[in-house]
Amino acid sequence: MSAAWTPGSWRAKAATQQVEYSDPEELQRVLGRISGYLKIVTSWEIERLEQQLGEAARGERFLLQGGDCSERFADCQPHVIDAKLKILLMMGMVLVHGGNKRVIRVGRIAGQYAKPRSSDTETRDGVTLPSYRGDLVNRPAFTAADRAPDPARLLEGFHRAAMTLNFIRSLLAGGFGSVHHPEAWDLSFVEHADRPESHREVVRSIEGGVRFLETMLGRQLEELINVEFFTGHEGLHLAWEQAMCERPPLRDGWYDLGSHFPWIGERTRQLDGAHVEFFRGLRNPIGVKVGPSMEPAELVELCSVLDPDHKPGRLTLIHRMGRDRIGDRLPALVEAVLRAGWTVTWCCDPMHGNTYTTSGGIKTRRFDDILAELEQAFSVHEAVGSVLGGVHFELTGQDVTEVVGGARGMSEADLSRAYESDVDPRLNYEQSLEMAFLIARRLRGNGGR
Ligand code: PEP
Ligand code: CO
Fold it and tell me: What is the pTM of this model?
């Protein structure tokens, strides 16, 4: 690892999952424009998030991360963003109630536009075209024009990310009151759940708490609390991320001001690779996905490169093993990091190790597999004296049919009704809220009740 870091030092390293543009001059022109723009988030917000993630690492807060696998430009619409924010806030309230800890909300939103792919190309009926790499790069339709990487999309992505976060900030600043009042939530699915009484009890208890506070203080809850919300995305497209880096006045070092929390994906976490090189020099708190092929010594080495100062909050390790691998793979990794003296924020992504394709060719996940991986994650951390500091979901606030199971018993045959994702399947509104009830039960430590 070279000692001298600059926002462009990653260019000397091997970069996987990068895009070939046919017009490099146009690419440079676009990147130059982005560099010159006012950016999307601020350094003080980034520092606040790092401090809060440090508290999550020590078990004093709980991180809730969620949003689309891949945000579409077309979904930069009020009703879509509104629904996503609402479900994250509702889940957050349920988790606060369950864990008695403050929740950190980080959306996979306002910039989650670039996707890693297992193959650079896709072949259909003898025709081979570049793979769809997310709206930041190209379009999903299978034509040469749609699949050609277009630098103008980098600019479009920057603008859409800024618009999305601007809208979120407006929603949070007012007019979002019903979220704090569970009597206004759609809870009809609860009647179909395994233990509806226990879910109803949580809802009554939150309602009671909110009413009590409002009565005591003579104000509406939304006037009293300032809901903080942060953004994150996979920092995959390094040229785009670099263009959003700045050294703000009165601060030391470089911040990626495109989002608060960028993370390195499972496919780009090579120790000697370009992504690790880029991320190591950022002042943002950063995440790394950790899949089942990770070895303990490699993970410790990654910690020493990405978090040389052992700063709680700096590094979030997002494990995504799959329900059948987590029990084998996770304990040695957590023990190794603990033994080596790092306090990282451990977060469980129970989505990406549990994807399968139905006999009808639809990519999906089972609600029960997702829950089973989460349950095991809590147990593994407890058993080795660590703490699970958060969860990471692919979800949406809308009524899509992408994940099998949940209280309504979504079946594989139901999936085609409203399957919208171009990439990975997401929990829908009801499945997300149900998942929050089940995690909250676990956080309360009465998983068997
Ligand atoms: C993702 O988060 O959408 C993703 C591609 O995950 P991973 O890097 O863990 O495979
Ligand atoms: Co995904």
Answer: 0.97
Mean pLDDT of the chain: 95
Backbone angles phi, psi at 214, to 5 degrees: -65, -35
DSSP tag of 262: E
Q: What is the 3-state secondary structure (H, E, C) of 30-55?
A: HHHHHHHCCCCCCHHHHHHHHHHHHH
- Measured in angstroms, how far is the CA atom of residue 224 from the centroid of ligand 2? 36
Tokens found for residue 233 = 């995305």
- Inter-helix orientation angle 326-339/296-306, to 10°: 50
pLDDT for 449: 38
CA 304 – CA 307 distance, rounded (Å): 5
Give me the CATH topology for the region 9-445: TIM Barrel (3.20.20)
Strand partners, 129: 122
Rounded to the nearest 5 degrees, what angle is found at the Cα of 87, between the Cα atoms of 83 and 91?
175
Cα separation, 184 vs 177, in Å, equals: 10
- Number of C-beta neighbours around residue 356 at 10 A: 12
Kindly state the tokens that stand for 231: 């953004």
Q: Which two tokens stand for residue 80?
A: 């879509």
Domain ranges of the chain: 9-445
As a whole number of angstroms, the distance between CA 255 and CA 235 comes to 13
Residues with CB under 6 A from ligand 1: 69, 116, 234, 265-267, 289, 320, 352, 424
DSSP character at residue 344: P
| Angle subtended at Cα 77 by Cα 74 and Cα 79, rounded to the nearest 5 degrees | 130
| Interatomic CA distance for residues 315 and 304, integer angstroms | 10
447 pLDDT above the threshold of 70: no
CA of 349 to the centre of ligand 2 (A): 10
State the angle between helix axes of 196-217 and 429-443 in degrees (0 to 180), rounded to the nearest 10: 80
Question: Strand (E) positions, 343-442?
Answer: 345-348, 355-357, 363-365, 388-394
Quick count: other Cβ atoms within 10 Å of Cβ 360? 10
pLDDT tens-digit map of 333-375: 999 999 999 999 999 999 999 999 999 999 999 999 999 999 9
